[in-house]
Write a structure and sequence with these properties.
This protein has 177 residues and is of the alpha/beta class. The chain is built from five helices and five strands. It has a five-stranded mixed sheet. Helix 4 links the parallel strand 2 and strand 3.
Length: 177
């Protein structure tokens, strides 16, 4: 009986070693294997890149008489957007500094006008002209997006996201000239 148990023990040890080697092979293969390329791998960060309207293009999807003002600011916002809400104090400053300077500031939101108006009132931005439009109709994929146009509705500048202080100053400088 002792010889039989010794044989079983040897076979069990061999099987344990074989299973361990197979496990290491599978783990090693999955660790060192190159992951498959995504469909848009030829474009670095294509999935992460926001859609931005082109400078020089015209905004035609929003019903605005661009010619009434030498410059227009289109704020593309969205109800519930954290960065839109955090940027409200900058928008208030911008409204104060551009008042009586021929600059029209328009808020464009994808939500209906009533919901958009309520959101802007909560942000203490009650004086903004409010329009409803789908973001993709403006070639915008992220909010907040700030667009400056000339008196023909042609885009001259675009910023996406919450602006750091130096970019806020850049916007205010452009609007004051």
């Amino acid at each position: 009986m002792g010889k039989f148990l010794k044989s079983v023990e040897v076979v069990a040890n061999v099987l344990i070693v074989v299973v361990a080697v197979l496990c290491l092979a599978v783990l090693g293969r999955s660790y060192f294997r190159t992951p498959p390329s995504p469909p848009n791998a030829a474009i670095p960060n294509a999935a992460a890149a926001p859609k931005i309207p082109a400078v020089g293009s015209k905004i035609s999807s929003v019903d605005v008489d661009w010619s009434k003002n030498k410059k227009n600011v289109v704020l593309v916002l969205q109800v519930g957007c954290r960065f839109c809400s955090e940027s409200a104090s900058f928008y208030k400053t911008m409204l104060q500094q551009t008042k009586d300077k021929g600059v029209n500031v328009i808020a464009v939101l994808p939500q209906n006008r009533e919901e958009a108006r309520k959101y802007l009132d909560n942000l203490q931005l009650p004086d903004l002209d409010t329009k409803q439009a789908a973001m993709n109709s403006l070639d915008v994929s992220g909010t907040p997006t700030l667009i400056i146009t000339d008196d023909k509705g042609q885009i001259t500048n675009v910023w996406v996201g919450k602006l750091p202080p130096e970019k806020q100053n850049e916007v205010l400088t452009i609007l004051s000239t």
